[in-house]
User: What shape does this take?
Amino acid sequence: MINPPAMGILKAPSSSLLYFIVFLLWLILTSGVQGGIAKDGGFRPRKLFVFGDSYASTGNNDISVRSWKVPYGITFPGVPTGRFSDGRVLTDFLAKYLGLKSPMAYRVRSIGSSKQLNYGMNFATGGAGIFDTIFPGRPNMTTQIDLFQQLIEMKAPSTSSGLNSSLALVALSGNDYSSYLAGNGSFTGSPIYISRVVNQLAANLRRIYDLGVGKVVVSNLPPLGCLPSITVSSAFQKCNSTFDPLIVLHNTILQRALAKLNNETNDAFLLLDVHGSFRFFLLATVGKQIQIPQACSLPHHLCGYVYYCFNLISCIPECQARPGSSRITMSNFIYALSGIFKFENALKPCCLGVNNEFICGSVDATTGNKMYTICSNPKKAFFWDTNHPTHEGWQEVFNILKPSLQQMF
Assistant: This one.
């Protein structure tokens, strides 16, 4: 749980505490990853502020949570860092693209140097949602923004200057809906709840902007029916379409809300099509066959991939007619094409519990033996555990997102 103004460390197994200490030492000593925006001119963010859940969190959960346990972090940096992956997550790849170091997690801000804090702050926490979720102690998005506002009012190093040249990332993977369904919510009643969620999300986005942030990028929902926690029922062979109407409605209402916000703010908001990027790999690799019969329905920034890769002539006019459509670079196309053939079965996670009673990172309470298995090569898996991409999965997703980001920078 995040409780301003200070964080306490709850009791946890000694191994988790050890890895947490190692992570803190790594955080202090390392200079992080950096990159840069190739395009000159335009908006150039100097700070990155992050809100959301486990798709963007870099260590805000308590150390008793599985993201602080082995084998999380085995690809990067070699020990658990609180990220829900074997390596980097969406936040890290976006920061690198911007030429910034990944912003520090709010939870460990007290150990950061002034230089590290100058890159922004990450408030995202695994299990969080727009509203409170079934995961206790996770700060919802309103609370995360409250923490951000407190830092601004305190004139903290991360917020004391340069807010108007900062970028906010908002990444949410659907915890509000899993909580809704777990609380006996029905699919027939979901449209009303979806409207509530998106309306509150839009209000939160506007609040972030009104606090002084220059630009805001927000992800839509991934294809929840393709998550391994769902596809396990088909032995990870096919997606479950039951969730499609919910996802389509959420993403459609969100897109309209962003259009309204952009009309009010001179295009300060950008949609990151995580849904389309996930589906590009998940549909193309199931059964080791290229399966994109609905190529024309792919998001506009994927049209170039479809044209170059599959030469679907009938799609070209529609692609060209879509607002914001732009020709992708050949290097980005090559990245995506190689990614299609990289993942052996994109629906099957790399790390799994030995049975339904255990999850990735579980150990036997008596013997301490690990109760999970890991694939031989995480680079060939799109998903790390039953809900989160691998380092390699996020890398490939971000390669597809780059063309849309270039509209803002």
About this structure: The beta strands are 47-52, 104-105, 120-122, 166-171, 215-219, 269-272, 351-353, 372-374.
